[in-house]
Amino acid sequence: MIETIRPGDPRYQDVRDVYTATGSPAQVLRPRTAEQVAESLARAAELGGPLSIRSGGHGMSSIATNRGGTVIDLGHLNAVEAPVDGGDLVRVGPGARWGDVAGLLSPYGLAISSGDSGDVGAGGLATTGGLGLLGRAHGLTIDNLVAAEVVTADGRVRTVDAEHEPDLFWGMRGAGANLGIATSLLIRAARVPAVVHATVQYEVRDPAVFLRAWGEAVEAAPRAVSAFLYLLGGGAALATIVYAGDDVPAAQSALDPFLRLAPRYGQRAVLTPYAGVVAAGGEPHRGQQRARTHSGLAVHLDHDVTTRLAALIGSGFGQMLQIRSAGGAINDVAADATAYAHRHQNFSVTAVADGRFDAFDRAWDEVRPALDGLYLSFESAFTPERLAEAFPPATLARLREIKSKVDPENVFHQNFPIRTS
Length: 421
Ligand SMILES: Cc1cc2nc3c(=O)[nH]c(=O)nc-3n(C[C@H](O)[C@H](O)[C@H](O)COP(=O)(O)OP(=O)(O)OC[C@H]3O[C@@H](n4cnc5c(N)ncnc54)[C@H](O)[C@@H]3O)c2cc1C
Fold this sequence. Notes:
Low-confidence stretches: none
Bound molecules: flavin-adenine dinucleotide
Structural class: alpha+beta
Shape: globular
Number of strands: 18
Largest sheet: 7 strands, antiparallel
Order of helices and strands: EEHEEEEHEHHEEHEEEHEEHEEHEEHHH
Number of domains: 4
Distance between the termini: 38 Å
CATH class of the largest domain: Alpha Beta
CATH topology of the largest domain: Uridine Diphospho-n-acetylenolpyruvylglucosamine Reductase, domain 3
Helix content: 10-25%
Strand order of the largest sheet: 15-12-14-13-17-18-16
CATH architecture of the largest domain: 2-Layer Sandwich
């Protein structure tokens, strides 16, 4: 029997909300098998109203709760099967958190390229991208996905990979939420016994000049380096830089240019298993992060991009600006190999605001013309214009064709809906 939690149940308060929103669903179904996921879909249709699919509940681009409808919560599907016989294939349940996955793989000297937060769920991230601190070294999470078990709108449980239903497998790697519910993920882990994890606090006097220097340093760094920068306003920036390997002298020389970019308030570097970078906090979800976010990608942090970003920072509309490295192994993958097609950009830019949203949107509109595509996991607006930035025309056309076959009734329209026409 499927665990079912309704309002009035003492367990309800722990399953109604997600990280970015509060909710009041009529029922939260917590299946334990793919077959129960299929049954949950039928029960959701019977009830009617909104449907939400939840893995970790840490989504930003889509909200995995609702008012008055059904949440299919995959939290029980959280098993992580360790690799056998010295292999590197890991079976991950969508309800697992990346911090737990990293912790389990550490003793094997393995790591899966994931996001920067250990609390993010496997299901949401591994069906859209997975841009994290091993990205330049080992690609996006989806680039390491070997196969997935998927429950489609017709209730069928399908195993998809390069040989079996390759179109659906292609679509699941970038636009998975539109096509079905991933109930199991087979992922190839990389040999990463340890990483050098550095943090640097900079004093930023001229954001445009600093960002240009940052961008050049990132692009010049060996691909073992992935680097994220958080600009907080008030003349300060915080960098998280990961060298994917335990060769400390090589890491030191790779990180050294980052120490010469600007005056520093402080810095720190530790040799740690990857699990030490993405530990899960495990706090209950209460809608604590109600921010609006905008996303864009950039090939280089050139004069146009950095001048516009500096103006955004100067406008004061926005709580934080985050610049992530992409490139490296991510760009080794052909643009048409997965439904995430952005394979020539070297940076992801995300702006976050926790209020004054209209002014924030207008300020971001001044940045957008300098950007090239967007990453849907970091974008709050689902308009057709943003959809076209997330999926280039050929990608969107192919996705719509697949969608028309596997989800003609548009059951899965919650996350950057691609629609069928
Ligand atoms: C603090 C924070 C840090 C983040 N860091 C990163 C990062 O470093 N890199 C990165 O790439 N992203 C990052 N993200 C974005 C995150 O990857 C996405 O929002 C992702 O969808 C969250 O996964 P989840 O399982 O926790 O999401 P949920 O909130 O459970 O789901 C989000 C949406 O994903 C879809 N979905 C969920 N599970 C499935 C499934 N099993 N099958 C199909 N569709 C599903 C549904 O549409 C759902 O509405 C971050 C988000 C937050 C809040």
